[in-house]
Amino acid sequence: MASLHFLLRPSSNPNPLALPSRSRPVRCANERQALFSRIAPVYDNLNDFLSLGQHRIWKRMAVSWSRAKRGDDVLDLCCGSGDLAFLLSERVGSDGKVIGFDFSREQLLVASSRQHLLLKACYKNIEWIEGDATKLPFSDCSFDAITMGYGLRNVLDRCKAMQEMFRVLKPGSRVSILDFNKSSKPFITSIQGWMIDNVVVPVATGYGLADEYAYLKSSVQEFLTGKELEKLALETGFSDAKHYEIGGGIMGNLVAKR
Amino acid sequence: MVRVSRVLLRDARVGINKTLSEILVCPLSKQPLRVCEESGSLISDAIGVSYPVVDGIPSLVPKDGKILATDDIEKPDSDVALDSANKEYPSVGQSLSTDALFFCKSKWKITVN
């Protein structure tokens, strides 16, 4: 499995930073933020291990679908530790600009550290910003492309997030949203569930993060199908929307054009 | 032909580069932000909120914004910075909800004491 994110629903949890149990869903933005901050130190390693490195291929596909090109200004939402941002940086080059945007400062600090360690000259065009995906701090029509990897499923107000993406995109530009695929095929759903129960959670347990990763199954089940994502994008105002299933149907990538 | 790369001038005290500070806007009002070098923050004069810059990473999370006193808004950088550095202000998240605050200040120009 690739990078892991968890869906939160509105809650009245009195202790938002308490470690959630498997019997209590992860709710509210504070819990979600704390969760991603807790997994930040092992996030990259687990992504590689659990997906056998496949997440790198899916992320390259997501960047390719965004149509980002040399000299562009691009935005990577829910950037986490920066995988997609670094790929975008190589694509837009030193004449372009990449904004890596996330709500977890811990993840951003990991991304920033990687940026300084990797030493590629083009990576100097990346800037990191902490913020809320439903309240973007950018003017209208700012970006030539937007990517979002394993993020939309974890945003409480997906409609608002889509509206903000639409607002800050330049006309004719695309957003490329990679995430787990909520499949309408029972076989795919079974495979996803089995892998989470029998591979992801046991591995995460070794890092002391069993509970943090146990919610993946329900978050995928509560996510939107490819058709629903296309509908959401069109209702938001995008002129075209297409969802592609990849990774044998386990993953999916929505491409929407303003 | 020599291709000229974009020159990103980094303000050492605030820790963000000039180009970045020019493209960022207030997440609530969507109005431009002003760099306050003394306090190391980004100021939204439109709604009187200050957003911190920590380790060179702007924190533009609405609930983490600090409400500025009325006399700190639209002042020259040095005056605002001095007041901001010396006073503690409630965070946007601790007082009114961010959206309610924005609505009130923009509609009725309410003064925050």
From TrEMBL, chain A:
Keywords on record: Chloroplast, Methyltransferase, Plastid, S-adenosyl-L-methionine, Transferase
Domain of life: Eukaryota
Compartments it resides in: Plastid, Chloroplast
Catalyzed reactions per annotation: demethylphylloquinol + S-adenosyl-L-methionine = phylloquinol + S-adenosyl-L-homocysteine + H(+)
EC number: 2.1.1.329
GO molecular function: 2-phytyl-1,4-naphthoquinone methyltransferase activity
GO biological process: methylation; phylloquinone biosynthetic process
Gene3D superfamilies to which the protein is assigned, alphabetical: Vaccinia Virus protein VP39 (3.40.50.150)
InterPro entries assigned: MenG, SAM-dependent_MTases_sf, UbiE/COQ5_MeTrFase, UbiE/COQ5_MeTrFase_CS
GO cellular component, one term: chloroplast
Family that this chain belongs to: Belongs to the class I-like SAM-binding methyltransferase superfamily. MenG/UbiE family.
Job description of the protein: Involved in the biosynthesis of phylloquinone (vitamin K1). Methyltransferase required for the conversion of 2-phytyl-1,4-beta-naphthoquinol to phylloquinol.
Record protein name field: 2-phytyl-1,4-beta-naphthoquinone methyltransferase, chloroplastic
Source organism (scientific name): Vitis rotundifolia
Classification of source organism: Eukaryota, Viridiplantae, Streptophyta, Embryophyta, Tracheophyta
Automatic annotation (TrEMBL), chain B:
Pfam families associated with the record: Trm112p
Gene3D superfamilies registered for this protein in UniProt: 2.20.25.10
Transmembrane segments annotated in the record for this chain: none
Alphabetized InterPro entries for the sequence: Trm112-like
Cited PANTHER family: PROTEIN PREY, MITOCHONDRIAL (PTHR33505:SF4), ZGC:162634 (PTHR33505)
Record family assignment: Belongs to the PREY family.
The protein, known as: Protein preY, mitochondrial
